[in-house]
Amino acid sequence: MMKRVLQSAQSVTGDDRSREAWSVMGHWIGAALVMAVCFSSLPALWAHHGLAEFDTTHTVRMEGTVTDFQWINPHSFIFADMKDESGKVRNWKLELGSLYMLSKHGAWNAHTVKHGDHVIVQGFRAKDGSAYFSVGRIWLPDGRSLEGKP
Hints:
CATH class of the largest domain: Mainly Beta
Strand content: 25-35%
Number of domains: 2
CATH architecture of the largest domain: Beta Barrel
Number of helices: 3
Shape: elongated
Largest sheet: 5 strands, mixed, barrel
Number of strands: 6
Radius of gyration: 29 Å
Helix content: 25-40%
């Protein structure tokens, strides 16, 4: 029996071994590609949250002074010193829509809001009570009113 196994092992040519090695390697490459695609799509699945973080049952209006404007994807942000309903001034993170939506449908650009601008915003506060806000509408110093999430 052992002799037959050895003879059959010896009868395998170099080409057969090469094909077998390529077949095994092909399976590993395929598995690695599938895993890479799965792992690269995970951030996108967690990234979009819509308005889930915000209390959409209460619309709030606040005003304050812009300290920073970040024209970035996936959402743009305005940071502003705002006075809340209790009179306390905090630096708020004001979330806007994506660059595409803001520029295509909302007349926004990287210079729409500047440091020191006095703005009024209307939208939704974060459910957790943090200084985080989803902007539905903003009133700019020049009198224009723009949608924050067109």
